[in-house]
Amino acid sequence: MGTEVLKRIKNKILGIEAEHMMAIEGLTKIAVIGGGSWATAIVKILTEQSHVQIRWWLRNKADIQHIRQFHHNPSYLSDVHLPPKKIKVYEQVAEALKGSHFVILAVPAAFIRDSLAGLQARHFHGKVIVSAIKGMIPQENLLVTDWMAATYGVPLEQTCVIAGPCHAEEVALEKQSFLTIASTNLSTAASFAKYMTCRFVAARPLGDLYGVEYAAVMKNIVAMACGITHGLGYGDNFQAVLVANAMQEIGRFVSTLDPRERELTSSAYLGDLLVTSYSQFSRNRLFGNMIGRGYSVKAAQLEMKMIAEGYYATRSIMELNKAYAVSLPITQAVHAILYADQSPAAVMEDLKNHLA
């Protein structure tokens, strides 16, 4: 019997066992790690499900107490009602994980290590780990799924990622949204996608874990580039050319690191890139806009009070690309501005010569 056939049988058995376990329990327990806007939006989506218990960990103890008393997050998406019958809020991350079938990681990549401090591989054993993080682990330059595998021994087939195009603010407003759930194991992706599907969100499974995850990381870099050009006074015409070239850049990089057939014009890739590059809710675009208008990196970070994942991702992608030498003119331009203190106006003037 071929390796691929055996793998499909194994994946099917894993999926059946997981569904059976949940059926016995009568309730699917989903841990959400993180207290920001995207974590809050995910919690809102999950509260639409009738047989789900949400086990939510937040770092901020004042926010925990507020949620318990008033049933909304005072720091992010404060208009979203959080029904107490469906949500249990925890101060200890290990307690939130206990008994959970799925664990959703929704903290900035730079903070994931601290958020999971003290946990061991046993805390994740038998659970499906879902990354809602669109960034890379700084210094180690690892995708979150690879970091979870290396740090806690979580098999890749038990991990998946949430990709857009989707902004937390529109989820809060119940605007129609679309999510892609990607995994190396399509059964894993499908089993989780049904919990992220509700009256205002459609979630679809996809078997391209690395393609979706790398594209989600790189689109934040592109969004910063769009913000920088907007801050410098460039118009829509130039931004359209920039985004078109960025899609080619993402395609080159992803195809080099994980060569396989994929349709980059689909929602998980192009759609996510477009919404992050153009939306008023994009924090990476906002960060870039401030840089283009003359803010220093430090000043922009302080004023935003939120993490722009693209800032850290720019360095990680550049470090990673040393081994591959893929042509990444847009990423290089953003890196030169953010990390080499080069003039945004001069860098973008030069970038024009590399766009087609």
Automatic annotation (TrEMBL):
- So where does NAD(+) get bound? 111, 168, 283
Q: Binding residues for substrate, per the UniProt record? A: 134, 283-284
Indicate the segments forming the Glycerol-3-phosphate dehydrogenase NAD-dependent N-terminal domain, all copies.
Answer: 29-188
Q: Name one GO biological process term.
A: phospholipid biosynthetic process
Listed under catalytic activity are: sn-glycerol 3-phosphate + NADP(+) = dihydroxyacetone phosphate + NADPH + H(+)
Where the record annotates domain Glycerol-3-phosphate dehydrogenase NAD-dependent C-terminal, the positions are 208-348
Which terms are listed as keywords in the entry? Lipid biosynthesis, Lipid metabolism, NAD, Oxidoreductase, Phospholipid biosynthesis, Phospholipid metabolism
The record's comment on protein family reads:
Belongs to the NAD-dependent glycerol-3-phosphate dehydrogenase family.
Name this polypeptide is given = Glycerol-3-phosphate dehydrogenase
